C-alpha cells in the first residue's frame, strides 16, 4: 500500500519504470551540461543544480525502493537499485562523450 492509497495502475505499477527511465536521462543531461558549460562554471552550476535539480527523481527512487523492500520484494528492489545506478552511470559517460564531441566540432578540429 502506498501512502496515498493502493498502487497505481498502468506502466509503473509493477516495476518503477518511470523513475528508472528518468534517472539515466537526468544523468546524461547533467553530464552534457556540466561538460559543455565547463568554460563558465557559474552557468554549469545553474544548469546542473538549478535546472536539473528540479528534474531529480532521487526521492522517488528512494521511496520506490523502500516500498519494494517493505512489500518483501527484495530481489526486485536489488535489481532496481543496481539497474538504476548502473544505467545512470552509463548515461553519464555517454553525456560526457556527447559533450566532448560537440565541443570538438565547435572548435572545428
Average pLDDT metric = 75
Domains (count): 1
The percent range for strand residues is under 5%
Helix content: over 70%
- Shape by Cα distribution: elongated
Gyration radius (Cα, Å) is 17 Å
Tally of strands? 0
Quote the distance from N terminus to C terminus: 56 Å
Q: Enumerate the spans where pLDDT stays under 50 for 5 or more consecutive residues.
A: 1-5
Main beta-sheet strand count, sense and barrel state: none
Number of helices: 4
Q: What string, H for helix and E for strand, traces the elements in order?
A: HHHH
Q: Find the structural class using helix and strand composition.
A: mainly alpha
Give an account of the 3D structure:
The chain is mainly α and 109 residues long. It has one domain. Helices cover 71% and strands 0% of the residues. The protein has 4 helices and no strands. Helix 1 packs parallel to helix 4 (74-106). 18% of the residues are buried. Residues 1-5 have low confidence and may be disordered.
